[in-house]
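ENCODED BACKBONE
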Amino acid sequence: MIVLGIETSCDESSVALLRGEEVLVNLVYSQAGLHARYGGVVPEVASRDHLRKLPPLVEEALRGAGVGFGDVGLVGVTQGPGLVGSLLVGLSYAKGLAMALDVPLVGVNHLEAHIFAHRLAHPGAEPPLLALIVSGGHTSLVHVRDWGRYREVGTTRDDAAGEALDKFGRLIGLSYPAGPAIDGLAEEGDPKAVPFPRPMIDSGLDFSFAGLKTAAVYWLRDHPHTRPEDLCASFLEAVVDVLSEKALRAAKVLEVRRMAVVGGVAANRRLREVLPARAAERGLEVHFPPAGLCTDNAAMVAACALFHYQELGRGSPLELPAIPDAGL
C-alpha cells in the first residue's frame, strides 16, 4: 500500500509517500525565512503559506516517487497538536483528496508521529522504551509500552526546550529559528563560562526552562560583553544537562533499557554527544533519527497512519476535526 502523508502543524509544509514502511519521498518546505523577520511563527502567515505551498508540494512528491494519485491507497494527516489554522489547511486538503480518490483517511497525533520517526529509522529497536520528545513546542517523556500504548510521565511546565533556545537566540540577536545557530556558536565556546542554573534538575520528571531564559536576561544585563560563543555553549549545556538527567531518571524509574530521542531538538549536536555517553555508563541504549526525520515531516505521519489503519484497524471520518491542544 502506498501511503500519502501530510504534515502542516506549525511552520513546515511536508508531504511524504511511503510504500509500506519504505520512504519513497519525504519533502519538507520550511517557512523559517518567512517568519524570521518577526522573530517567531505568526499563525496567520503560516496558514496562508501552507495553503499556497501544499498542493504543488503534493504534485512534486508524486513526481519524485514516480507514482500517480491513483496509486495512493491511504491518506494520513496531522490532526493535532499544533496551530489550528495550519492544521485546518492540511486536514482540508487531506479530506478532499481521500474523498476524491475514495481511499481511507487517518488523522494522526503529531506527538505519536514523532515516536514513529524512531520506528522508521530504527525498526529493530522495539518497545518497551522511553521516548524523549523535544522540539520547539513540546518537551515530554513518554513511556512507550508498545506501539499505540503510551503514558506521558513528564512534561514541561512552561517553555519547551526548543522554545527556550529560540527565545535565548532572539535575546542575543540571532534570527529565528535559533537552534542551529546556537549549536554552531557553542562549538567555539566554553560551556562552563556562564554559571546558568539547571531548573528542576533534581526534582521529578517534569521540565521548566522559563527560569533559564530569565537567568540569561539578568546575565546579559550585568555582563553585556560576554562572548556569544560562551553564552551559547553555557546555555546549551544547561538545556542538555536537564534533558539528559531527566531522561536517565525516567528510564531508571520505568526500568527500560532503551531510549528514543525525537523532535527538532533531537538534531542538536551536543545532545547527541552527551546523552548517549551518559546512558552508556548505565547500560542504556539511545537512538536518534537522522536529521531529516527529527523536524516536523510527513514520513513519520504516514508511518503512524499506516500503523493505525493496518494494525489497529482504525480510520477517520471526513468530519475529522483539528485538535490544536491534543495530547497523547
In short: The radius of gyration is 20 Å. The mean pLDDT is 96.
